[in-house]
């Protein structure tokens, strides 16, 4: 599955080099790799991260015209995968350097809690030692990024993401996940 996702993303980015926007307001495609679970290091290993960025609709002008996005974070080690929908605000620092802040809601397939009665004490401890205990299938995602435009279409960037339910979407466990990574972007013009 992971190989298929990476191959599909690579084909998409390669095809984008000569393509016009495929429609639906799609403005930018991003592909990156991130260090996963920086805080606890329970789920070490890289994540493959792909984003689809859309043009800001007129009705979002009141909140500084953020761009809607869809994102997927795929674990290369068989740990937590996430999909996110949200909004991203861009700020151009110079002609080439831009900063971004984003907020969204993500869904994950990770471990919510350990259950010693169900799994047994040994297995429950193994899960506790090797997995982030997220407490909810749904998490808030906040992100920050800096991108440098190489030319009209391509840019390189660094990004940070935090996924957590903040005791708002659930109660109990909330270890959350932090990711730091590098990405390449292709922007349709």
- Nearest-angstrom radius of gyration? 18 Å
| Proportion of beta-strand residues | over 45%
User: Count the helices. How many?
Assistant: 3
Overall outline: elongated
Largest sheet: 8 strands, antiparallel, barrel
User: Which consecutive residue ranges, at least 5 long each, have pLDDT under 50?
Assistant: 4-18
What's the order of the H and E elements? HEEEEEHHEEE
Structural class: alpha+beta
The strand line-up of the biggest sheet is 1-2-3-4-5-6-7-8
Q: How many beta-strand elements?
A: 8
Helix content: 10-25%
**Mean of all residue-level pLDDT scores:** 89
Question: Termini separation (Å)?
Answer: 32 Å
Task: Describe the fold and architecture.
There is one protein chain. The chain is an alpha+beta fold. The chain is built from three helices and eight strands; from the N terminus they run H-E-E-E-E-E-H-H-E-E-E. It has helices at 2-16, 116-119, 121-130, and strands at residues 26-36, 46-54, 67-75, 82-92, 97-108, 138-149, 154-164, 177-187. It has an eight-stranded antiparallel beta barrel. Strand 4 and strand 5 (97-108) form a beta hairpin. It is elongated, with a radius of gyration of 18 Å. The two termini are 32 Å apart. Residues 4-18 have low confidence and may be disordered.
């Amino acid at each position: 599955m992971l190989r298929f996702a990476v191959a599909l993303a690579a084909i998409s980015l390669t095809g984008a080099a000569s393509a016009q926007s495929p429609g639906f307001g799609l403005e930018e495609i991003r592909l990156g790799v991130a260090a996963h679970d920086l805080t606890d290091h329970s789920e070490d290993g890289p994540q493959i991260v792909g984003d689809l960025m859309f043009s800001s609709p007129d009705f979002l002008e009141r909140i500084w015209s953020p761009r809607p996005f869809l994102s997927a974070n795929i674990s290369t080690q068989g740990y937590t995968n996430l999909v996110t929908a949200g909004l991203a605000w861009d700020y151009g620092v110079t002609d080439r350097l831009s900063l971004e802040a984003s907020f969204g809601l993500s869904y994950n397939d990770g471990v919510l809690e350990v259950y010693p009665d169900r799994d047994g004490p040994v297995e429950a401890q193994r899960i506790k030692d090797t997995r982030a205990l997220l407490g909810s299938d749904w998490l808030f995602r906040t992100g920050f990024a800096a991108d440098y435009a190489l030319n009209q279409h391509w840019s390189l960037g660094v990004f940070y993401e935090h996924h957590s339910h903040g005791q708002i979407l659930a109660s109990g466990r909330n270890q959350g996940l932090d990711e730091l990574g590098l990405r390449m972007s292709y922007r349709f013009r």
